[in-house]
Amino acid sequence: MAKINTIHECSKCGAQFSKWQGRCNECGSWGTVSQEATNLEPKKDTVNISAEKPINFTEINLQEKTRIKIGIDEVDRVLGGGLVAGSLILLGGDPGIGKSTLALQIAQGIGNTLYISGEESASQIKMRADRLKSNLTGLKFIPQTNIEKIIATILDQKPDLAIIDSIQTIHSSDSSTGIGSAAQITACTTQLMETAKASGIPIIIIGHVTKEGFVAGPKTLEHLVDTVLYLENDSRDFYKILRGVKNRFGSTGEIGVFEMTEVGLKEITNPTNIFIEDHNSPASGTAISIVMEGSRAFLTEIQALASKTSFGYPQRKSTGFDLNRLQMIIAVISKMAKVNLSNHDIYLNVTGGLKIKETATDLAVCLAIVSAYLEKAIYPNMLILGEVGLSGEIRNVSQVDRRIKEASKLNFNRIITAKNQHIKNIPNVEIIQVSNIAEAIRIISGHQ
Ligand code: TYD
Ligand code: MG
């Protein structure tokens, strides 16, 4: 069998092929495949390699000072309580979303920070800092794109934090591929990871999300770093949401909410109702519930539309809610509450661009559909919480006190929930407890 001792690699996506080809099969780019490395045979002289001494966990002393608080609560919480010493963090997002602004605010929070930019000059950063009314005393800046120089500077300056803006502009003299290619980005990130681990200095790298929705180099970066944060717009473009999608040192359920103002990103500390507009004037087909994102509760509005099927099978479409679960709920409504939806198309929408991943909003989905079908609005100021089971029973939801605590700040005076759910008494709030969907439907259809 012939030995492969040459590989050809695409400089854009990093795919490898045994033969040269004009077009990369993986990313479809032309003229990017070139001969990359030779001689893949394993080295034979393994006899002289000395064995590693394993580490015994009982000998490791964890130091308490490993987390550094930034002082911006929304960021600290998403990180799991602050920056971990020696961690490598990727801050991704669309161009123009506010990554550099957030990075500068983090730098200001930390103080002794080295800001490395391959995109902007010192005066541009200064202009931004002036806009943020930042105190620049601890901030050091280098405009640099060469990774070896960047690392040498980080090790020389020993800042409390290094920020690299952006990874797409950095190159390594070891790699011959183009700036911004997957191979370059991987090589540079790997070197930064080693630097962070060896020096204990946390490093934030900023990465642009490309048109295809990747932080360039099909998600390769996400595997290399400790923590991945994305900054994105909410669906109405009012707020910026900082979301943790990977975190080796904390949970990924938390989100941070900001508003972009003339003086930088402002924290929204009480964002319970950012995803809905007005819950006081209900229309038929809308139901209000509360979802948890990490430790935060958010009010959410579920909208349903039921329209007569004009041809063929009835349609079921959903945005922000799992379609299989929607179909299950529709089946339960038809079978257990005897509401015949078999010749109605059902469309479901979760407003504000939230994606619901939990079952606590099942009952709200169910009542929104029935309300749309009956063309009857649900009471104003009514909060609906409960999971729906296959036999139509309403089940308890988790963290109910937290959810209700948030909701009670917002003028809700009726809560409909599961029979067995234990709820503390809240003044001026009527708690209606139901055991199955038929009962819940009777309540919403009975009111005038
Ligand atoms: P920027 O942080 O440069 O985005 P990124 O690094 O993600 O590309 O800033 C994005 C936008 O924010 C830019 O259009 C200007 C605006 N902006 C403000 O509205 N207020 C401010 O205080 C700052 C610094 C920027
Ligand atoms: Mg920027």
TrEMBL record:
The keyword Lipid biosynthesis does not apply. Residues 64-209 form the RecA family profile domain. A motif (RadA KNRFG motif) lies at residues 246-250. CDD domains: RadA_SMS_N. It holds the Pfam family Zn_ribbon_LapB. ATP binds at G93, D94, P95, G96, I97, G98, K99, S100. One of its GO terms (cellular component) is cytosol. Residues 345-448 are annotated as: Lon-protease-like. The keyword Hydrolase applies. Keywords: ATP-binding, DNA damage, DNA repair, DNA-binding, Hydrolase, Metal-binding, Nucleotide-binding, Stress response, Zinc, Zinc-finger. GO terms for molecular function: ATP binding; ATP-dependent DNA damage sensor activity; damaged DNA binding; hydrolase activity; zinc ion binding. GO terms for biological process: recombinational repair. The middle region has homology to RecA with ATPase motifs including the RadA KNRFG motif, while the C-terminus is homologous to Lon protease. Plays a role in repairing double-strand DNA breaks, probably involving stabilizing or processing branched DNA or blocked replication forks. DNA-dependent ATPase involved in processing of recombination intermediates, plays a role in repairing DNA breaks. Stimulates the branch migration of RecA-mediated strand transfer reactions, allowing the 3' invading strand to extend heteroduplex DNA faster. Binds ssDNA in the presence of ADP but not other nucleotides, has ATPase activity that is stimulated by ssDNA and various branched DNA structures, but inhibited by SSB. Does not have RecA's homology-searching function. Belongs to the RecA family. RadA subfamily. This is DNA repair protein RadA. It comes from Candidatus Buchananbacteria bacterium CG10_big_fil_rev_8_21_14_0_10_33_19. The lineage of its organism: Bacteria, Candidatus Buchananiibacteriota.
